[in-house]
Structure formats: structure tokens, C-alpha cells
Fold each of these.
Amino acid sequence: MLKDDCFLGLDLSTQSLTTLVVSPRSGVVRQLSINFDESYPRYGTRGGVPTLPDPLRVHVDPMMWVEALEDVLRLLQEEALTSRIAAMAVSAQQHGTVYLNHQAATTLAGLDSSNTMASGLANIFSRKTCPIWMDSSTSPECREITAVLGGDGAVARLTGSVATERFAGPQIRKFWKEDPAAYFRTEHIALISSFVTSLLVGRIAPVDAGDGYGTNLADIRSGDWSRTALDAAAPDLRQRLPRLVIRDEMIGRVSPYIAERFGFRPDAEVIVGSGDNPCSLVGLGLIGNLDLHGVSLGTSDTCFGYMAGVPDVERTEGHIFGTADGHAMFLVCFKNGSLARERLKDDYGLGWEDFSRILMETPPGNHGRLMLPYFMPEITPLVLDAGVRRFGRLDAADAAGNIRAVAEAQAMAMHLHSAWVGKRPARIFVTAGGSGNRGLLKVIADVFGVEVQTIEVNESAALGAALRAAHTLLDRDKPAMGWKELWESVESGARTHVIRPSAEATRVYRSPGGLLDVYAACEKFAIGQGPDPDAHIRAFRGAFMEV
Ligand code: XUL
């Protein structure tokens, strides 16, 4: 490794492509982002996804991602950064599948560096669009897979999650059922992280367990694709899937095309790609740490944490994915994250400052007024029939009441649906767009009753990808650096913020009969599993709110 060497993390999220160049000597060297809506209006996206009539079906044209990759690499080249990259890794929104035809492998290997990537790759797809993580259209396929594999508990035990609408297994099954000819014309099915990595190495790239376990197709105990899960999804699937690797590895050098066209060194190494959440786990410094949990307030809200191994508990909630070091992490995901917050902010004509101020000024418990913010179909709990539900006479015209209600609902949903993990965190690290909002952090701190901390680099998925690249290369070249040392070399801790919970607020949420219990009753009612929560709300007001 040379003194000037840097590592590149690329994060293809729902709304943008972000690159982060880091050096263990000088920290973050450069951060660059391309927003899809602004840069590629011809794809007609809003928030990175096309506005389509069916709220359950969310597909994206992969050519938009190809164009973004090309543009971001050119920007890095213009700043003379590509030639300094010793190794790189991709992070991407999880679960989305990309369908490639028989020409894909040879086309990827033989791209002509005088042409754009987009023109060279126009004919490699066997399906024009890719279902992404926001797609909830595969409930029938989930039921079919569950029936074959022996029920929710059995599927979760085998694959790490119950059959889940946005995951590759049900999505591939749906594709096979709807268009078998196109399915059989598909030679390779990539996850988005392995697809973007394939573009860098010029051949079909493997997938890691961070992303690969989020498919309902792998056996999380053996670390390989599961024959029974594959058979339950679609015929002849194994031959169409990439190799699954269970801990970070170098998968090869950049392709001659990438080196020539964007000025990378021909010996620049590419590390297996992963999902944005497994990358955020690294970017937040949580690898190896069982006491800290992460919360990402991006397009999706997620909460996650490191686990020493695959837990042996019977459960049907949440997900288990692999980690960079070959261990496991838990994750709970909510679709109505930043888009729900943004929608309310815009509806009331407010700015983010107002949003934060309202949360700092309004009382925890919101006078017993609650919201289930299902602007879109929700993932956790599964709600396919979108629509905001308000309780306790929350008036839709009351800006402050609704802002408080959305923030409390999101934090309480995280608390409620991560209970199965067993261990509560001693501290929470928060990342992504929403982490700049002090009011939101305060609500999370109060609901969980622990300190909440932000880190300097809030693009933790891109940072995690860059650190994974650095960790793998340094491990080869020596001196190797441990995960903690590496993370600390980039995260000085200089600009972190710590938000403390207030004991009184935490009492309002966490006491028996407190708002968390009321919220759980509202959720149960909304999904048809419990009575009207009105009596709960009245009891809560009597016990916790001044009249
Ligand atoms: C996680 C999930 C989302 C996506 C988008 O399971 O679906 O967090 O990774 O970022």
C-alpha cells in the first residue's frame, strides 16, 4: 500500500448514489452524491422511484443506476481521486433483484472504453425493471413459499426471516409465475449490491451474506443457498444466483474498462458488495459490539445491531443477516420513514428546523394522541392497505400534534418490534438524513431511555463500504487493522452529538399502561388483531397526562 492510498465506498441508496473516499491516515477525503430525481428526470422518479399507479408494485429501471455510477466515477476522476484508490466496495439498498440475460457476462467483460457504460450495457437485461425493497406485491408468493417450507417459524429459522414481500425469493417466484419465458431467458439474477459490483469488476460478482440472507433463499446456519428454499421459489434457480460468500473477501481487480475509462489503477481491488444496513453496521463502528445498536433514518427507518452468532430463538419478527466478519446482525425495517416525515412537513408548510423545534417543545405522550403513519404500505407490521390512522382525537389539521405523533410512532415501532432481540442497547448510534434532526433524536432517546449519539460521517453506509474495502486490503498487505482501530482512524469523534433521555419522558413511554402499551394496542387494532384502543388511551391520559 502506498502512503497516498485511499479507499472508496459507493452507496447506491433509494434516492441517490453517494461515494466516500477515505484514508486511514487523513480520514474522509471526499464525499460526493448524485440525486436521482434531480439528475435523471427522464426516469420520472420521485424519491428515487417512478410514480406508479399501484402502491404495492415498486420497480426501478436499472439503467438509471448505471448512468449514476458512470457520472459519479467521472466526478471522482475529475478531482484526480480515482487514481488514488487502492480498493473499493459497494453498498446498496437491499433486496432488489436485477435480471440479466445470456449476453450479460460477455458484454460486461468486453466493454469498449470509448463508449459510455449505459450504451454498452443496454442489452444485458432480461427484465426491463427491478423490483426494489419498497415493493410489497408478492404476498401470494410469500404464502406459497411458507406453505412449502412448513410455516412462518420454519422459514424464519431456515432463512433468517419469514417469507417477506420485498425479498428476492418471493420476487423471483412472482416473475417466474408471470413471465416464465423471460425467467428462463434470465441467466443471472443479481442483488443490487452484486450488480453494481459486477459493473466494477466486469463479470458476474458474488453476493455477501449481509445482502444474501435477505432473500429467503439461503440457509443462515450453513451459509449457503438452501436447496429447499430455492425449490420453493422457482425452478432451476441455483444456477441463476451468484456465489454466496459469508465474510468479506477480495473478488478481483477493476475491469480494464473501469480502469481505462475512469483512471483507476489497474490493480485497484474490489471487495464483495453488501446491503446498506450491513454496511451501516460497519460505518457506525458496531462490528464486534453487542451493547450498541444502530438506527438509520433514511428513506427506510431501520434499527439493527451486531450478534455474536445466529440466535437460537423461535421468532417470526425482524431479520437476521450476515456481517462483514462472518457473524450475524439483526434488523427491523420500516417503510414509512423519511418519506412519511417529509410528507407531513410539506403538508404543513414547515421546514426541518420547525419539525425539530416542535419535537423539542411538545410534551412526550402527545396528550394521548397517536398516529400510525402508513402513508405507504408498511413492512413492520405488515400493512398492505396504505392509509394514515389517527387515534385519541388527533386532528389532521393540528401540525404540532401530527409531527409529534409521527416521530413518537416511528420510535415506538422500533422499540416494540426489536423486543425479540432480547438485549436492549446501552446506547444508540443514529445515522442517515434524519440524524441531523435533534428533535427526532430526542424522541428516540426518550422512548428507549438511553443516550443517542450521532457520528461525524452521517453517510454511514458509504463509510462502511469504504472501511470494508480498507479492512480487507490491509488484512492482505499488513499491517492489518482491527475494525475498531480502523473505524476510529476515520471517525475522530470530534463532531458527534449526544442526546440524553429525560427520566420523566421515558416513564411516560415505558411504564405499564404507558404510551408504548397504547401504541401496541393501536397497531393490533389496525391489523385486525385487537379491540378498539380507546379505553387504553383514556386510561393513559388519566395516569400520565395533566388535564
Ligand atoms: C432493509 C430494507 C431497507 C433497504 C433500503 O431490510 O429493506 O432498509 O435496504 O435502504
Amino acid sequence: MRDVYQDIDHILIDEQKLQSRIQELADAITSTANDHEDLLLICVLKGGFMFLADLSRALKRPHELDFMGISSYGSGVKSSGAVQIIMDLKQPIVDRHVLIVEDIIDSGRTLQYMRRNLLARNPASLHICTLLNKPSRREVDVPVDYIGFDIPDKFVVGYGLDFDEIYRNLPFIAVLKPEVFAHLNL
Ligand code: IMP
Ligand code: MG
């Protein structure tokens, strides 16, 4: 039987480090509560689902949740550059205090697109929280309010992040063995 754990080269961020950093992020978000009376967390699917689940549980202040499906990658490891909304929010966000919850910022194009799209709906405020950030890969400038971890320019999987839609279930952030990518012409 195929076992996803056999494809892992090494773990970059283990469960304990993830969870303690997420609690710190939640505390930082809670401490700015005055500015965010009616906080609405918007999870960017699919990659943000596990981070949202843990961040939401770690948040003490009241908040609502909504989901947005965004597609910015093909099945490979390089961005196509094209961003598409494949599932929109269930509700208007006018006058709401919105926090975008994203798995990773790479080129910045996905978040730049989302930010512009959501700002056009006139929220009271719009902030961004990302679990992972690859600063060396940035192509467009996006203001990010909360960052879990800066990571090197490596393709990572786990904790919501996929390669070819697999590995999202891993409870940590990991780097895959080179042979997993062997069939791709990178
Ligand atoms: P950006 O638009 O280039 O910033 O890419 C952001 C999106 O690309 C993320 O929401 C992820 O879905 C995907 N992505 C970027 N880097 C990685 C990675 O290392 N592993 C898995 N997905 C990634
Ligand atoms: Mg992806």
C-alpha cells in the first residue's frame, strides 16, 4: 500500500512548533481586538483549511468564518500566474473586519488578487495572516500583517499544502524526496 510518509525527505516544521506559533498568532490577533469588533476569518481554500481550523480554535475572541476557493497553481510546483475564484464567499463583507487566512505566500500574486478583489467589496478593514512566507520568491508586494514562519525557497507540503493534491493531511510541514518530482520537467 502506498504510504505518503515514505515520500518525505525531511520535516521542516514539526507539529509542536506549528501549534505553539499558531497560539502566538492567535494571541496577537486577539490583542488587536478593539479594531476588529466583528472579526470575519476568510479561509483561502484549499491550502488554508488546516491552519484555519487550528487558528480558529486558538482564538479566544468571537469570530465568524467564511471560505473562498482560489486556484493559482496547476498540478506542478510552479505558479501559472493565473488566479481564479472557484468558490466565492457566502456573504457580503461590507463594513466587516476581515482577516484573510492563507497557507503560504510565494510570488504574492494570489494574495494580491484576493486583496484587491475583497477591498472592492468595501470591508471596514482587511488584514492578512499567512502561516508560511517565502520572502525570496516575492514578485509583487503585498502587505502581510501576521506571518507564522519565513521559510527558504523550497517546495513544501503538509498541513493543508499539497503536491498534485496529495499530502495535505500531513500534520507537519515537510519537504518531499526529489524522486517524487522526477517525472516532472522542471
Ligand atoms: P503565490 O500566488 O505565488 O503567492 O502562490 C500562493 C499559492 O501557491 C499558495 O496558496 C499555495 O497553494 C501554492 N504554493 C506556493 N508555494 C507552495 C509550496 O511550497 N507548496 C505547496 N503549495 C505552494
Ligand atoms: Mg496547491
Amino acid sequence: MAPKSRASLGGATLLEPELTAAAFSPAFTLMYAALAIVIGLAGAGIGWMVRGRWRASRHARQRAVANATDALTGLMVREAFEAALADALDTERGASRVGALLYAGLDGFRLVNEGHGHAHGDKVLAAVARQLREVCGARVPMCRMAGDEFALWLNADVETCELLARRVAEALSGGVALDGQRYAAGISVGVALFPKHGGSAQLIARAAAAMRSVKRAGGGSHALFDPRIETEQREELRIAQDLRQAIARKELELVYQPKIDASSLQVTAVEALLRWKHPALGMVSPARFIPIAEKHGLIESIGNWVLAAALHQAAAWRKAGLRMRVAINVSGYQMRQDDFARRLEAGLRSHRLQPNRFTCEITESVAMEDTQVTRRAFARLGKIGVHVSIDDFGIGHSSLATLRRLPAQELKIDRAFIVDMVHDADARAIVEAVLTMARTLGLRVVAEGVETPAQRDALVQLGCDELQGYLFAKPMSARAIALWAMDAPTSLAQSFRPSLFKETIMTGAPTEILKR
Ligand code: C2E
Ligand code: CA
Ligand code: CA
């Protein structure tokens, strides 16, 4: 009896011999078969229901994605666009299609946000979307990919696609109209062709890469994808990766180029210029790696390194009696960095350097941004009392009103005008105009890139204050600057050339300078 009572307790006892035999009797077999059919049918029913529900919810999800529009612009959202594109191109139906993916990104949208606030930035994005619709027509599938980037698919031959890309860039070159005003919103457009440049995912990536190449070249235009862009991207990535290690591996170095007083020909200042000795690539130009450092979030640590190294060197020279001003180049990213001014101030204090003997060179394009962020940064520099120099002056668009407000003491005329001024009347006229304006505003003018005596003479004649360029000295190491201050390394004590260095008072033996 015990096994029976145990069997009734539950399935665990079903393997009891008597019960197992009973279980295989014909009556039980029939009962089990019926039960199995009922359970099977129920299971199938539940499965069918679950599958049906799952399918329905998947379709609902797909429908939701396909219909999802971006609240700001009313365009498709990225997921919907990508799904539709994959569906159209990656199936057999896509085989007969030709067309292009256009990837458009606004130029300098950050300035709109920083200058007028994010709510206004949103309005500009909506206006840009309306303008894109107007140019491309209502039927072209179009989406906002992210932030200030848009993508659209055009089912047409190469010529038509390129024409449309050009029209988009041109239409936005004059900015967008908003609340009765026009706001600058140039656009860069990258184009990838189907099927030549790949399937849907590759098209988007390649059109975006082409768009970035347009931005690098200054923006406001369009470009077709070229495989060389990917090679460049890979190289850039390698440089960014290696640059990450450069400080720890002690591969960075500062060289210094003198600025010369145009009337006395004495050294008034030296500009610190960054050098990177890459173990395999050799000397990499800052013109190449600084923009990469900015893009990959490395400029902060590099800029901090430059600041610390230049302050250290300035203090060493000061101690040795070389009293020239020391200048560093400050990138726009550093200007936007909250603690740059604080670091600068603390560094000057700890090295006991007079702030007005230290110069920050800031490019005209950054200086003219005139956003809340740059205004605040300039105000901080003004408060610290450092010398501010507007670099590469003349190539950007300067506003006199902004220039007047800046706490700047110096303008550096870009090399391009100096190269041309001897044989080009326009370039000479610009140099003259800059000098006149600078005098009115009480700014000193430095001409950079002076290479020939003819350029020097013309600049001196026009009343330029300071000169800098290969004619006088190339950028050199701190040690070479010290040697340059001495005439010859043989009789150091007698050969020091105070005539070369303005306000120089030798403290201690000249050999001390060379040791540093
Ligand atoms: P920049 O500030 O306009 O510096 C002047 C550039 O012209 C330097 O190039 C200098 O070596 C070069 N140069 C000077 N005199 C002459 C001349 O007579 N003829 C010619 N052909 N060139 C001359 P470099 O050192 O290659 O620097 C290029 C740019 O990289 C700099 O332009 C500056 O914008 C940036 N840079 C350099 N160091 C730093 C740095 O520490 N931080 C930042 N943010 N940027 C830096
Ligand atoms: Ca400079
Ligand atoms: Ca410059």
C-alpha cells in the first residue's frame, strides 16, 4: 500500500515498478494519449498565440520605428531611415537601383548653441530641415542622424546626385532665415554612391567620412567619397593613438622662435612652438597633429603640458637674466576649457613670473567667435593680466567691435600677406590697413613669416612694430636660443650679445644659461 499512497503524493514516485506497469496498460495508454493530445493542442494554441502576439508587437515596433519622426525637425529618425535604406538596398530589389546617400553636417553649429543658447539652436535645426526639404523635395527620404547631421537617399544617376549635393551646400551658404533674421549655418555634404561604394551601412559611413573631409577643408561645400579618405582616417586614428602616449614617452618638445623689434632689431619675445618626435614617423608637424589632438580630446593634456613647459623655461631664462617675453599658442579648445585660466594664473604665481611678460597667442578665428564662452575666457585672461596676441590675423572675418572689446595688446599679421606684399598691391594694402587700425586701437603689430630683406624693409617702412621669420631665426631649442644669445660658444663671458636681447640684464655667468 505504501507505494500507492506514495504515488498519489506526486510524480516523483512514478518509477515505482507496480505503477510503471499500470501506466503501460491499454487503458492508461489511451488516457495518456488523450491527455497528450489535449496538452499538445493547448501548447500549440498557446505557442500560436504567443508567436502571434510577438509578431504583432514586432510589427508594431517596426511600424513605430518606421513612422517615428524627430520631434524637432519632423524628419525620420535615424533607426527608421537605416531600416528603410537596408530594406530597399540590401535585398534583391536593391540590385537594380542606382543612387546616392547624401550626408550633411552643419558647419560651426556649436557656435550657434554657445552664442545664442540651445533653444535657439533647436530652432536653427528645424529651419535647416525645412530648407533641406525645400531643396530636395517632399518625396526624398530624409532623416536627422544625430545633433546637427542629416542624411538623405536619392534614387538618381551620379550627375543628378552631385547636382543636388551642390544645391544643398549652396542653399545653406547664406544661412537660414529665422524670426526675420539670417543665421549663419553653412553645411558640408558628403556623397556615397550605390552600388559603387557599398550597401546601406557602408554608404552611411562613407558619406559621413566624405562630409568630414569637406569640413576639414573649411566646409560649405560637397565631396564625393574617395577611398583615400579612409586611408587618411586610418592614419589619423594611428596618430591619435600614438599621441595619447607622447607625453608619457617624453616625445614632445618645445622650440622657440624669436620676435624682433623692428627698429632696434632686438629680441622682444620668443614664441614656443610644439614639436613631436614620433619614434617611427619622425618629426610630425603641429599643423598636422594639433587638429587631431583637438578632435580626439587630447588637446587638454597637450595644452597643459605646453603651458607647464613654457612657464618652466620662462622662469629659467628669467633667472638667468634673459628677460624676453614668452608666448604660447592657445587653441580654441583650451579657451573653452574651464580651468585653463586658473592653471595659467597658478603657474605664473608658482614660478614668480609677471603675467604681463607672458603672452597667449589666440587665432583670429577663435577670438572672433565672440560667444559667451570665449568672452568669459578673454575676460579671465584680461583679469590675470597676461599679454594677449591675436594670431593669423587677416585671414578670418574680423569685427572691429569685437576687436575693440578684447583685452588684446598685439596683432600678428598672417604670413600669407607678408609673402605677397612685395609684389601684390592688395596684400600690401591689407598690411597697411591692419597697421592703421592697430594704431587706432593701441595694438602692437607683429609680422610673421618674414623671409626676405625686401619684406623686412617694406614692413619697417610701413611702421610695423615687430618682425618674426626665418630671415632672423628659425624656431630653435631653448639651449640654442641661449647659444644664439652668445655670439660664439668659445669666449662666453665676453661674447654675450645684450644688444640682441631687449631689457636683458645678465645675472650670473652666461654659462649658467647653457646648463638649463
Ligand atoms: P603659428 O602659431 O602661426 O606659428 C607660425 C608657424 O610658422 C610655425 O610653424 C613656424 O615654424 C612657422 N614659421 C615661422 N617663420 C616662418 C617663415 O619665415 N617661413 C615659413 N614658411 N614658416 C615660418 P609650426 O611650428 O609648424 O607651427 C604650425 C602651427 O601649429 C602654429 O602656427 C600653431 O597654430 C600650431 N602650434 C604650434 N605649437 C602649438 C602649441 O603649442 N599649441 C597649439 N595649440 N598650437 C600650436
Ligand atoms: Ca602663433
Ligand atoms: Ca600665426
Amino acid sequence: MSAIDLRLLPSSTSVDADGHMSIGGVEVKDMASHFGTPLYIYDENHVRARCREAVAAFGADSVIYATKAFLCKAMAKLAHEEGVLLDVATGGEFHVALSAGVPGNRCVMHGNNKSVDELRMAITNEVRHIVVDSFDELQRLEDLHVEGSAAPRIQLRITPGVHVNTHDYVSTGQDDSKFGFNLNNGDAHRAIEQARASAAVDLVGIHCHIGSNVLAIENFEDASKVMVDLFASTGLQELTLGGGLGVAYTERDNAPTMQQWADVLKRAATSLPSTARIYVEPGRSIVAAAGITVYEVGTVKKIDGIRTYVAVDGGMSDNMRPALYESEYEVFDPERATADRKERARIVGKHCESGDILVFDAPVPPNIAAGDLLVTPVTGAYGYSMANNYNKVTRPAVVFVANGEARVVVRRETLDDLTRLDV
Ligand code: LLP
């Protein structure tokens, strides 16, 4: 197996003649020694470029960044600066967005089980719209409504009944789903009628999200056809064609580009009046490839005839995706980025279970030893956002790097943080 393919790395990545890798003009090794490991590093200009690419492909005020993919105040601020709206799926995500100075009306409220408090928060802060997910939620909005006050703009989340080629845990558009109003059993039409008749909500559109990490462009074609037909029959003004566009995690993966995705959706929507507003909600495709995780190797265990285990100083607490979805990653040494990865190893973490695996069977450079650095690329989405304190491991710091400067945007947790909620 050859050296790591730089197409998986953030766009500002460079490698010098000695094989030392830099991102944003700063050596990965220097960031690791200065900020410690494990460390999430984001190429800030890469994230900005992805936001701009999405806005260019879909139009101004049509791109809603799904903050669940990666959120902290710096990220919320960056997306807002780039003219992207924010999808918040909980009161917690909304709180972070508001704390970053993003106005409520630049946010869209999501979630399949929004509490009364979350709905009230959305209404009070005048979100752009609420994506309503269930009849219970319509009732909660009814109960919250104060006569004479403005009704919140809502879209209804529709489950179009399409199957996508992704992991079952992240498929969301099939009939057997906890999300949204099913089209095929009539719930979608009943919800549209009910919302139209209600003074408590201002029904402006419909929404769908078919799954995450979708790599087959035909899946978007199928879902958009169903949604565009339904949308045309309602005469509503707004249609959200969700996502989620997949990304390449390994050298074997191929993902459609943002423009290819936009072209498919636009083609599906050509019959609609020009007044129809189409939104998309990318999360992963904005941030995944902008981020890497840097670890330090702690132990190497060779079992003759079986395999080599390389244990790093993080694991399933900073990247749950391999354990949850058997997701695959590449791995390499940022100090030997041009080295042939001609040995194989299983990269594991420091947690107390055998499923704590980061890469199941990775090509690695030869003679990995304790003290070496290892990087997993494409960890910018659903890495930090699903990080946890299993085994009371402290969550890593997050660094943004650009133009030769690296800055901490989320500090590393301390041991004291681990007891700060105890009473
Ligand atoms: N909109 C809605 C309503 C969603 O539920 C999601 C993702 C998105 C947008 C963003 O989709 P994206 O562009 O990121 O694919 N933890 C999983 C991913 C779960 C995604 C759930 N919803 C993972 O690590 O793969």
C-alpha cells in the first residue's frame, strides 16, 4: 500500500521533502506538541471554502448547515459569516448557536421529539422555521399558541418511503422510521391539512432527509421526484431536500461533488414555479474532510500469526463511528507522510473493551513505535460532536488553523471538568 492519498486531507495540506506534514501552514507535529494529543485539527479555510461551494451551488440563503456534524461557537460563527443558515436539532445546539451571536432567525429548529421548552425557545427567538416531525408536536404548538400572537413558520418533515445505500442507523427516509410523517400511509397529507387549518402554525413548506453519508446520486434523484410531486400538489412555497451528501473516508470511496448534488436536485425541481425556494441541509460534506485527529502511539503489541495492535491515546471516546457503524478510516504518520504503508495493524484506543477500534485493519508505515504520531483523516464530522467521557477520558481540544496560525477554539477538558457536575 502506498503513502496516504492527500486528496483525503484538508485542502491546505502540504508535505515537505522530509515527509513532514503541515496544515494551514503549521506542522502537524508542532501542533501536537504544543496543544497535546489527541487533538482535532480543522483547516479553517477548507471549511469556509466548503460553505462557499455550497452557497455557490444552491444559492444564497438556501444552505442550512446541520450543526450536529460539528458545533462549537467558532464553527457557528464561521458558518454564519459565510452566509449559511444553521440547523439546530436540540435546545442545546440552539443555545450554542445563539451564544456565538447567530441570530435566531438564521436558525432552523429540528428534532424528532422537541420538548415544550425547545419549541418555546424556537418561537421566542423567532427561528426561520421549525421543522415539525409529528402529530404530538403539532399539538404542542397548538397548546403553546397565544391568541393574537404571530404563528411560527413551519415545514413538515415528510418520510418519502425511499431506501438509500447507507448504514441502517443513519437511514431516515424509509417507511419504517421514527422520523417525520409517512407519505405512504397518508399521514403526510393529514398533517398538511391539519397544519393548514391551524391558527397556531404558519405552514410554509415540506422537508425530507433520506439518510446520512449517501454516496449514490440516484438516491437523491428518487427522493426528490417524490418530494417535488408532493410539493407541487400542495402549492406551498418552501421545499427542503435535506441530505445528506456522503464523503470519501478512504482511498476506495467516491463521493459526488456538491455541484453534482445540486444539479440532480435542480433537475428534479425544474417543473416548479420560480418562486419555490429550495433548501438543503448539509452537515458532513461541509466539515468532514476539513478535520483530522492526531494521536500519539502508546503501545505496540505484535501477536505472531495473528496481528499487530497499535494503541493510541484516544479511541471510541473521540471517534465512535467505527464502533457504531463499522466506519472505515485511513491512518498515517504525519512525520512520515510519504512513507509506504506496507505493514498492517489494528489501531485501537485506550478504553476498556475490545470494540474500542479506530481502524480494523490498516495499512501502516513500517516499525511504528511508542511515541510516534498517527493521524486519522476525515474526522471533522461526527467526531468531536459524538465525543464522550467513557472511562473518564477527557475530551480533546479542537484547533482551527489557517495562514500559519493555529488557535484553540475548544479547550481540552481537564480532570476537574470530570467532577464539575457532581454534587
Ligand atoms: N438534516 C437532518 C434533518 C438530519 O437528520 C441530518 C443528519 C442532516 C441534515 C445532516 O446530514 P449530513 O449532511 O451530515 O449527512 N452520526 C452519524 C450521522 C447521523 C446523521 C443524522 N442526521 C455518523 O457519524 O455517520
